[in-house]
Amino acid sequence: MNNKKARYVWIPMFIAIAIVGGILIGRFFSTEAPFGNSPRYDKIESLLQCIEQQYVDTVNRNDLIENVVPKILGELDPHSAYIPAKDLESVNEELEGSFSGIGIQFSLLNDTINVVSVIPGGPSEKVGILAGDRIIAVNDSAFVGEDISNDGVMKALKGPKGTVVKLEILRKTSKKPLTYEVTRGDIPVNSIDAAFMLDNESGYIKVSKFGRTTYDEFINALSKLNNQKAKNFIIDLRGNSGGLMDIPINMANELLPANRLIVYAEGKAFEREDAVSNGTGTFQEAPLIVLTDEWSASSSEIFAGAIQDNDRGLIVGRRTFGKGLVQQQIPFRDGSAIRLTVARYYTPSGRCIQKEYELGKADDYSMDIINRYKHGEFFNADSIKQNKELVYYTVNGREVYGGGGIMPDIFVPRDTTGYTSYFNNVANEGLLYQYAFDYTDRYRDKLSQAKNLDELMPMIEGNTLLNNFVQYAAQKGIRPRPVYINISRKLIIGTLQAYIARNILGEEAFYKLLLRDDETLKKAQEILARQDTYTRLLSGEPDNEE
Prior knowledge:
It is a single chain. It is built from 21 helices and 21 strands. With 546 residues, it is α+β, with helices and mostly antiparallel strands. Helix 16 (462-475) crosses helix 18 and helix 18 (489-505) runs antiparallel to helix 19 (507-514).
């Protein structure tokens, strides 16, 4: 697909240039009669001229255009969108793999910037900023209070590489505020959150998005687990809403034998392009399971579809989101851009897994996930109505269906064990995260002595955590509900321990604790432990042991 990519990048741009040229020519020839009878006149441009010349009040033309463009795109499919110039950089950088900043993870608690962690080797670590520090001023201007926001903090701390930002910091061990000058540098944006061994045979990889560096991170994760003697792999795409299209293609190529179709895309002005494996992948044989849920979308579905249709592995979890549309980003001279849907992509069997939508009805489209929940689809596979007219077949002849997401080979209902109104209240208020941060901050010197989970866990004993948390939540306005607290006991303790572990040991420790009782992951491990079951399911034969 990459060989023809440049052509398709330029076609929309030529169209955009032609449109702009037409507007300028129209302005030159139609000043006298903005609503003339010429079939070539531009109605939108003529309307803007008429407003400028005759409207009772003075209006800002640029503001009108900024408001109109999203409305025009809103009449198309739900994924075509306008990106204002002020937002384009931040929208793009998450997928580009890095941005320029000071190298911290922060959280806004009590109207103050709290440093949750400092990125190793980053600019902040180099000058001595520590986890637990409070940033109270940026460039000699106070930066606390109800008016600060995450976006405001990001804009203040990020900036061009090599520029300097002055920070004033409060630290518990210092009686006076500390001042640091931090030179901004490139900060990596990781998309592989964790890669570790679940047991003696199964390697686990959590992929949170598909960005510019994801493929390299993926290869490193596979190699790391291979060196740890992994015999099979579980790739977790739950909650992964997608990203760049070429990344899942390269990742699937690493796992597939030669000459296997990975995905193809085509549209009205987008000639069909096929992505085919070249046989150079180094992990073509190991048993494989991909975990999905209702938030796995776009690039996640490209990857899962390639694995399923080629019978390279099994999909375990719940039906994916159903986004099979390809967007082309088209820039404008003012720094803004549109992401215009130019094609649909299809899995190797020929499925277009884009769910149904109506032009201009994005609100209805966004309700689909809620409707699935109401219909019981998250809890019962029989609630999912497949379109029997859109049947396709995998390499081994297994039936799969188009028309809306990828249905897993093994359905695992959403686990609601331990969920009560009390847990939902403390979670929705962010109290679990806030308490975990406060706890970490209070005992950071002691907790930081732990080098791994075995050393950390005795320090964060469950009963003590729970009792103290209930008191903390009561002070925040969530009254104790003993019956519900007892039902949610294991869930509350596990979540608190996972957050504390993340603050001290990082993402891998967080996932190791968070996934201890994960039913979908348990099912995947169970299938991989029974090689005959795994092979039988891939061949399309029923699993008599299920």
